[in-house]
Design brief:
Blueprint: E1 3-7, H1 11-23, E2 27-31, H2 34-44, E3 48-52, H3 60-70, E4 76-80, H4 85-94, E5 98-101, H5 106-117
Parallel strand pairs: 1-2, 1-3, 3-4, 4-5
């Protein structure tokens, strides 16, 4: 179906999300930091990105800005913990298309991906 870049510094979150997406027919590329996300985006040209906000090295907003600068048409959904509404609003202004709240619901993740690649 689509190539999805899953970005989260927590290995179990990447694994859980990657497994869900793979089981639903998607190809998955992973990154554990914002810097790695930008590099993976540039080298893999994914159809969509699930991007964690809080990460070491480079946070999700900075990574979103760099990805957006590289590809103005990027399709990104932010992955957020509860209580990060102001950051989510800023991400949406920058160009994120959607957001998913952790701990995520499988159907919500699949809906976000479907929206991104539609």
């Amino acid at each position: 179906m689509a190539k999805i870049l899953v970005v989260d510094d927590a290995a179990f979150m990447r694994l859980r999300c990657s497994k869900l997406l793979t089981e639903n027919g998607h190809e998955v590329v992973e990154a554990s930091t914002g810097r790695e996300a930008v590099d993976q985006y540039k080298s893999n040209s994914p159809d969509a990105v699930l991007l964690d906000i809080t990460m070491p090295d480079m946070d999700g907003l900075s990574a979103l800005k760099e990805i957006k600068a590289h590809d103005a048409n990027c399709k990104v959904a932010m992955v957020t913990a509860m209580g990060q509404q102001s950051i989510v609003m800023e991400a949406l202004k920058i160009g994120a298309k959607d957001f998913v709240v952790k701990p995520f619901d499988a159907d919500r993740v699949l809906a976000a991906v479907a929206k991104l690649i539609a």
